[in-house]
């Protein structure tokens, strides 16, 4: 796509390559407990997002609340915990549709 062109995946706008590269470079600067191989899968359980928040706001995050997860139910539990314990305090909330996209490793769900 051209500059500024908005692509959609479902109802969610897709980011262009420049935006994606900026996000990936930013994430690469943060020490994470697992290597970033497939960003959709690596971030699907919410653990690395909790680590990113903890990097900037260590007092906000209790990492023991976010166990690594493979099942959809446990991933959703982690994201709901992030939503209630962290994101609410940070003045935003993710919708059920967004949580579902994250747990199901949909393209660009994490990056947005």
Automatic annotation (TrEMBL):
It comes from the Eukaryota. GO terms for biological process: regulation of cytoskeleton organization. InterPro entries: CH_2 (IPR010441), CH_dom (IPR001715), CH_dom_sf (IPR036872), Spermatogenesis_Ciliary_MAP (IPR052111). Residues 17-112 form the Calponin-homology (CH) domain. One of its GO terms (cellular component) is axoneme. Signal peptide: none annotated. GO terms for molecular function: microtubule binding. PANTHER family: SPERM FLAGELLAR PROTEIN 1 ISOFORM X1, SPERMATOGENESIS-ASSOCIATED 4-RELATED. This is Calponin-homology (CH) domain-containing protein. It comes from Haptolina ericina.
